[in-house]
Design a protein that fits this description.
Elements lengths: L5 E6 L3 H13 L5 E6 L2 H9 L5 E5 L8 H10 L5 E5 L4 H9 L4 E4 L5 H26 L9 H17 L3 E9 L2 H8 L1 H18 L5 E4 L4 E7 L6 H17 L9 E9 L6 H21 L1
Helix pairs in contact: 1-5, 2-3, 7-8, 8-9
The structure holds magnesium ion.
Organism: marine sediment metagenome
InterPro entries: CheY-like_superfamily, Diguanylate_Cyclase, GGDEF_dom, Nucleotide_cyclase, Rev_trsase/Diguanyl_cyclase, Sig_transdc_resp-reg_receiver
Protein name: GGDEF domain-containing response regulator
Length: about 300
């Protein structure tokens, strides 16, 4: 197992305590900590602002700040950095209060041993990494890596603001992967997953990096593109179908990838909501799907 190097910022004014903490962190085999030590809160906070810190070990009693205030100032500067607080013997209560305010943990100086220290630091770092991943997962579809419905909703609101500010227009394209159910039923879910990933890649290849491409449901994809004067919805749809055809020519797969598509235009002169656009595009897509099935 390779240990991931973790960057720890230690804000501690007592040189003896600082050395002890560094020694304890470095003594436990298997974990690599890169420790930076700063004696004052103001310079510590500046260092935090530069980023790239995995964990802050914070003595609350510093030359330029004391008590819970120390924690609050540091936490406000970098809310995403997990903090483990160091308190003296007499003010363990302060540690408890810091945890209530959002510290990951507290350690009492003179009471803590190396293993406890390493455990607290590792746990705080891992938990904060897990939270980051969880945040990402809540807005992303893990299969395709595209934003999910929630992610799309947030990104689309931003795009809408941009379009309104530029007095521009946007195209919303709703694409539904045809026959996903029969692919899943006849060829298995792995093949169905592959078809979804291929669809995502096809959309990524067809549209621009600035367009929002999302998977908002089982077989439902959407693209929200700021409109370029040269591109009307037909051009975009044709481009997509052309790439789809090319994709179906290469490789061997027991079915053809097929997409039903509906597009609507958003004009900032006649605003409507993202949900309204989605509904309309979905309806148009469905019309095309019915047509595809008849032909
Ligand atoms: Mg101190």
């Amino acid at each position: 197992m390779t240990a991931m190097q973790s960057k720890v910022l230690l804000i501690e004014d007592n040189p003896g305590d600082a050395r002890l903490v560094q020694e304890m962190l470095n003594e436990v085999p298997g974990f690599a900590f890169d420790i930076e030590c700063i004696a004052r809160l103001d310079s510590g906070v500046k260092r935090l602002a530069r980023g790239d810190i995995d964990l802050l070990l914070l003595d609350l009693d510093l030359p330029d700040s004391r008590g819970l205030d120390t924690f609050i100032k540091a936490h406000t500067q970098a809310t995403e950095v997990p903090i483990v607080v160091l308190t003296g013997f007499e003010d363990e209560k302060l540690g408890v209060n810091a945890v209530r305010k959002g510290a990951q943990d507290y350690l009492v100086k003179g009471k803590v041993d190396g293993n406890q220290l390493v455990h607290a630091v590792r746990y705080a770092i891992e938990r904060s990494r897990a939270e980051e991943t969880f945040k990402e997962m809540a807005y992303h579809d893990s299969l395709t890596g595209l934003p999910n419905r929630r992610g799309f909703s947030i990104l689309a609101q931003l795009q809408l603001k941009i379009a309104n500010r530029k007095k521009g227009s946007m195209l919303l394209l709703f694409a539904d992967l045809d026959d996903l159910k029969s692919i899943n039923d006849n060829l298995g879910h792995l093949e169905g997953d592959k078809a979804l990933i291929e669809t995502a890649n096809l959309l990524l290849k067809t549209f621009r990096g600035s367009d929002i491409i999302a998977r908002i449901g089982g077989d439902e994809f959407v693209v929200l593109a700021l409109e370029n004067s040269k591109e009307c919805s037909e051009v975009l749809t044709n481009h997509l179908q052309k790439n789809l055809k090319a994709r179906n020519m290469i490789g061997s797969r027991p079915y053809k990838l097929s997409l039903s598509v509906g597009t609507v235009r958003y004009d900032s002169q006649h605003p409507s909501s993202i949900d309204g656009l989605l509904e309309e595009a979905d309806r148009l897509m469905y019309e095309q799907k019915r047509f595809n099935h008849k032909s």
